[in-house]
Amino acid sequence: MPVKVMITYWPKFEKIKQAILTKFDDTEVEVEGYGTPGITGYLEVEVAGKLVHSKKAGDGYVDSDGKMQKILNAVKAALA
């Protein structure tokens, strides 16, 4: 069963999704996302039900290699 990644996102959801699917096969990882109408700048990433990145909690946008790597490491750990 693939690891589920849920992204509550701002408009750059596709960037995060593509980074994940570049590293992991789509048979291993299922990436879903949904928008937050009326709320701008909201961004949370859950991997296998665990919150791994939250702009609301102070993580900011996924705007650096380090932040993206944190998400990718969480997916890798969930697959192990």
Automatic annotation (TrEMBL):
The keyword Transmembrane does not apply. Keywords: Redox-active center. InterPro entries: Selenoprotein_Rdx-typ (IPR011893), Thioredoxin-like_sf (IPR036249). This is Selenoprotein W. It comes from Stylophora pistillata. The lineage of its organism: Eukaryota, Metazoa, Cnidaria, Anthozoa, Hexacorallia. The gene is sepw1.
